[in-house]
Amino acid sequence: MISRRVFVGRTAAAATLLAWRSSEPAASVVVRGGTVYDGTGAPPIRADVTVEGDRITRVERDLSGVEGSVIDARGLAVAPGFIDVHSHSDLELLVEPKAHSKIRQGVTTEIIGQDGGSLGPWRDGQPRDDDRPPDVTAFFRLLSDRGCAVNVSSMIGAGTVRHVVIGDSDRPASADELDRMVALVADAVRHGACGLSSGLEYVPGGFADLNELVTLAGALTGSGLPYASHIRNEDDQLLAAVEEALAVGFGAGVPVHISHLKAQGQRNWWKAQPVLEAIEAAKVGGLDATFDRYPYVAYSTGLGSLFPLWSRDGGTEAFLGRLADPGLVPRIEMAVRDKIAKLGSWDAVQITSTGSEDLAWTRGKRLGELAAARAVDPFVLLRRIIIEDENRSGMVGFGMSEANTARILTHPLGMICSDGSALATSGPLGTGSPHPRSFGTFPRVLGFYCREQRVMSLEAAVHKMSGMPASRVRLPGRGRIRPGGFADIVVFDPDMVADQATFERPLAYPVGIRHVMVNGTLVIRDEEHTGALPGRVVAPAVTP
Q1: In whole angstroms, how large is the CA radius of gyration of the chain?
Q2: Is the whole-model pTM more than 0.85?
Q3: Low-confidence stretches of the chain (pLDDT beneath 50)
Q4: What are the angstrom distances between the C-alpha of 371 and each of 240, 305, 308, 365?
Q5: Contact 113/155 with Cβ under 8 angstroms?
Q6: DSSP labels for 149-173?
Q7: Are residues 96 and 428 in contact, defined by beta-carbon separation less than 8 angstroms?
Q8: Domains (ranges, CATH) in the chain?
Q9: Alpha carbon distance 485, 22 (integer Å)
């Protein structure tokens, strides 16, 4: 039995402790008991994270006295929301703002306007859908008005700018045209674009020479924003194409970011290491150089990319005209067959989508298998599909090695990207047979490459998905778990997280991404979409 004096003393101490705890400021959300990966690449810590409004307020080992709505993160990883540094969700976010296939991966910010193509500006008189905004600024306004599950930032596309000023013809820009193009780039940056992208395997971006690219990138000089390039060639001329991208950076005095770095085609796999060394050397030489890559051995693009750039000069109508010209077809066929030889076979090409429903029978099928089943030459079938679909078909090409994929993903200058879109398993964005990267990229890195293959640590992977891309495109307050930062948070199970989408069955959401918060609002709770649309248009913090 204790004395009355001791009892009274203990009771008073307990009351004091309770008073102290209750005096702590309440939080709207407390993420409790998780292992925090802060986005810097530092080792994780066991900590609680509090959120008030759209901001993280505290990150401390024990905040058990703080009241608020609790997310139980015991046994789970807590990380900054993932930033997809190379995304193609531009129009998809207007079709379905819930961004299902991205937010369910833990992606909280999308960087769109890639590969030289952005939503505007558009040429005067150019037809476009009613919902398609006339420029990047109008797109930002439209997205803000409609709401979106994820944050969005956009680059300005050099190919789009060239199309506005010059059209789709293969010719150099005049001095006056260059001035007009630079003005469009500078205007987009003033209104929140987070860099300049180029797509040098596409029309019309591929018609730009080095001088044009340096001149356009010059509009970024002093801003700290990057020139991001889908380089001119990713197979036989890979080394020269990377050197060109680096030369743009040196010439314009701007950072360079190489999109979806790869060595395509078995005869080019040996080039991966020399390319990485070239980027490292540029970094040593004073260039701020980085790159990104998705965790798959197949790429995805338009089916028309199998054809030489010269045959696509002038746009779709001119391209289809050349495919119908008996005098040009043999020359075109020779170039296409050489492209297929680099990939290995016709079965290295899988049709992902078609504009025409009459060609729905091709979706998800390998080109070689389709040709064999119809007893027709694969080139003849390919040409027929392109013509009948008016060059609207998409493809997946199996051209990279697993060893190189791991080497590129784990390199310290590399980030993780999807190069995919915000799709869904049903509705208008749940059709066709898209590349599985739109559904599985980030969980695949965490599950396959970190947990199963052990080629990199979780803290390194999280850094490549959050803090590193936030720094690359200068998004203040994003990509870190720290007080004062925006509350973009993903809570995942490191023992279970995994992609479920395959090339054969790509429309499948991942598992193990438990909760996702965007600007302090839960969009994914217990792996289910809440319907919330708290995303924002985010602008970079440019250097004065």
Answers
A1: 25
A2: yes
A3: 1-23, 127, 130
A4: 35, 19, 21, 10
A5: yes
A6: SSEEEEPEEHHHHHHHHT-S--SPP
A7: yes
A8: 82-300+399-480 (3.20.20.140), 315-398 (no CATH)
A9: 25
